[in-house]
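Thread: quick sanity check before group meeting

JM: Hey all, I'm pulling together slides for Thursday and realized we never actually wrote out the predicted structure for the chain we discussed last week. Dropping the sequence here so it's in one place. If anyone has concerns about the input, flag it before I start.
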Amino acid sequence: MKIFINNQHVELPAGEMTVGELMEWRNIPSGGTAITLNDRIVRKSDRESTRLSDGDRIVVISAAFGG
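JM (edit): ok, ran it. Output follows.
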C-alpha cells in the first residue's frame, strides 16, 4: 500500500496499518505530535483504530521546544 507522509510517497510494509502502527513504524513520538489524515485531525484516542487506505495523505506536525 502506498501513502503520502508530508508529501513524500511511502510504501507501507503491511497491507493494513493503523495510524498508531504507522507512528510506531516511523518512530514518530505520540507526545507533542499532531496527525492529519486526508486533511482531518486524528485524535490521539483514535490513532489505534483509524485504518489507512491506499493513497491516503498523512501530515505529521511535531511541536518544537526551546528558546
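AS: nice. DSSP finds one helix and five strands in the chain. The chain has a mean pLDDT of 93.
JM: adding both to the slides.
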